[in-house]
Specification:
Strand content: 15-25%
Helix content: 25-40%
Number of helices: 20
Length: 753
Amino acid sequence: MVALDSETTVNFDGTEMTVMPLRPPVAKVSADFLNNPIRSPHSSTTFSMDDSTRFINRELSWLSFNQRVLHEADDKRHPLLERVRFVAISGSNLDEFYTVRVAGLRELVNEGVTRPSVDGLTPAQQLEQIDADCRILMHGQQDRWAMLRKEMEGEGIFIVEPDDLSEHDRFWLDEKFMDDVFPVLSPLAIDPAHPFPFVPSKSLSLALQLRQRNGEGEIDALVIIPPQIARFARLPEPEGSKSIRFVALEDMIALSLDRIFPGYDVIGSGLFRVLRDSDMEIEEEAEDLVREFEIALKRRRRGEVIRLKVSDNTPPVLREWIFRELGVTDSEVIDVHGIVGVSDLEQLMIDDRPDLRWRSYTPRRPERLRDFGNDCFAAIKHKDFLLHHPYETFDVVVEFLRQAARDPDVLAIKQTLYRTSSQSPIVEALCEAAELGKQVTALVELKARFDEAANIVQARQLERAGAQVVYGFIDWKTHAKMSTVVRRENGKLVTYTHYGTGNYHPITAKFYTDLSYFTADPTLGRDAGRIFNFVTGYAEPRDLERVSISPLTMKNRFLQLLEEEAAHAKAGRPAQVWAKLNSLMEIEIVDALYRASQAGVQIDLIIRGICGVRPGVPGLSENIRVKSVIGRYLEHSRIVCFGAGEGLPSDNAKVFISSADWMDRNLNRRVETLCPIENATVRKQILQQIMAANLRDEANSWVMRWDGVYERGAESMEVEPFDCHEFFMKYPSISGRGRAGVDDAPLLTAPEA
C-alpha cells in the first residue's frame, strides 16, 4: 500500500506523480452569472436556523450548476471538440429545465399560488430570477460557440455559410436534399384553409414570407424540420484536402426552397424553436397504468409553449405572426444571435479527429473474474467486489445476467429497470431467461421521465417472453437499482445480489461514474427479496436486516447517523461525514447537517448539481465544505460515510452506497435503497480511493462559498492539479484485483478538514 500525503511524490509502476492537497480557491470565475451571489433578501453572512435564507434556492442552484458545465467550454486543458460538447450539454440541460421545472413553476403562478418555497421565494419571484439568469446563460452559450467556431476553423473544421459554397458544393447539396431531406418534409402554406399547425417541442421550424413570381399574391408558409434529419451535413472534400466542412440543415433547406415552393420568391424568413411543458400528470386511480401513461405521453407532446427562441434577423411581420399563432408574449421569447438549438452542436463530434477528442479509454475488466474463469457466481461467492464505472466495464453486469439466464441451476431472477438503452442487453438477457423457463420478475418504472415510451415497449417485450412485469406504485417512482439471482447449490438456495448507484444502461455507463456492488451475503439477499416483494405485493417490509429504503426508513437512518456523529463530536471524539451525491435539498437533512456542524462534526460534501446548503457560515455551518466535480465523466454515484467516533477513513467507519440523492423526491416519494458496505476491502476502496480522490481533486473541482457562488482554484496553479478522473483511469480498483491482492494498491489520503 502506498499512502499519498500532501505534496508527497510517489511512484506507481515506475511513474512519478505529485499530489497536492485541496487548497483554498485562488481564482474566481469571471462570468457575471457566477460572480453574483444567489439572491436572498439579506446581504449579511449571518443566518439562523429560523431564517428561510439558510437554504439556497433549488432552481437558482441548478442554474449555477449548468453555468459550471458551460464554463468547461473555456477550459483549454480539454480537447477542442469536447469543449464544444460542453456547450451542447448545457443547452440540452437547459431545455429539460424549462420543459419540467419552469413549466411547473408557471403552472403554480397560473393557479395563483403565492406560497414561498423553503428559501422564501414565491413561484413568481423564482420565475423572474430564473428568466434573468437564463438570459445570461444563453448569451454565454452563444459567446462560447462563436469563440469555439473560430478555434475549429483554425483546426480546419468549418461550418460553411451559403455564400461561401462553390458550384460543386451546391450541386452536391441539391442531390442530398432531394435524396435525404425532401421526402420527409411537409411544407405548409398557411391560410384560412390551412391553419397554423401544431409545432412539436424542440423542433426547428422555418417561417417564410413568399411572393408568387406572376405577381398574383403573397403567402405565409412554414417548414417544420423533422428531428430525425441530422442538423449538420458534411460536405465531401477533394482528394488530398484535410478540411472538414459542414452545412447547417436550415441553410440546405433555404438553398432548396425552389424545390419546395416552385414559382415563389422568398421575401422574408426566420428560424425558430419552441419548448413545451413536458411534465406529466397521472390519475391516482388509474386502472391500467400502461394505458394511462400512453395517454399522458400524447398530452405531453401537445403541452403549452413555455419558451420560444427565434433568430434575431427574423423580419418583424414574421415575428408577430409566429408570436400570435403560438400564443407567446415577449417575456417568453429569446432572440438568438448565433445558433438556434445549441444542443445540436453535439452532432459535430467527429471520429476522424481523435486529436480533438478525449483520448480513447477502454474500461478494465476486474482481474477477479479472470482468476475465476469469467464465472461471475464463483467470483462473487469467493468475496464481495465493487465495480467503479466507467473505469471498469459495465459488461460484467450484463454477463452476470446472461450467465444467470443460461445456468440450469438458476431458478429465479428479479430486476429493477428505471432507465436502460434501446435494444438493451439487460432486457435481452431477462427475455432469454424467461424463455428458458426461469422465474423472471422485472420491475419496470413507467414514470422515468422522458423514457416512459421506451419502458412501455420493453415491458411488453418482457411480457411476450414470459417474464412477470410489475410497474410499481402509482404515487412513488421505483428508483432503486437492484438485481437478484437465486441459484441452487448443493441442495440449498443461494442468492447473488447486485446493488447499484446508477441505471442498468450500458450506454450511459460509459460516461457516468457509478458503483456496482456484487455480493452473496445472505442478509443483503434477503433484504433485496423483501424490497422486491414490497413493490410487487405492497407488503411493507418490517424486518429489513441491513438495507434501508425510502420512503419508509432511509431518511430517519440518515438523521440518526448524523445525530450519532454529533454526539461523538460533543464527547470530544473525532467526528466526520463524507457524502458524494448529485443533489442535496431535503429540508430535514440540511438542518441536520447544520446541527452536526454546530456540534463540531467535520462535513465534506461532493455535490455535483443542486445544493441547498450554505457552507462556512459562522455559527451555522463553519464545519461544512461543499465542492462540485465536473469534468470528462458525469459524477453520478451516491456514497455516504460516517466516522463513527474514529474519523475518516477508519476501519470502523460506516459506509453506504445508495440510489438516492438527498432530495425530497428521493427520500419521501421514491422507492430507493441504502446498502451498507461491510466488506473490509470494498470499504477501503470506497474510502481511500473513490472518496479520497474526489475530495483531493482540484482539476475538475469547484468550491462553493456561503453565498452560493462557486470558485475554481485549479486554473492558476503552477503545478499540474490532481485529477480524480485521470487517477481512476490509471489505477485499478482494490476489490477487483484478484490474486494481486491489495497490498500494493494505490490508496489516497483525503485533504485535512
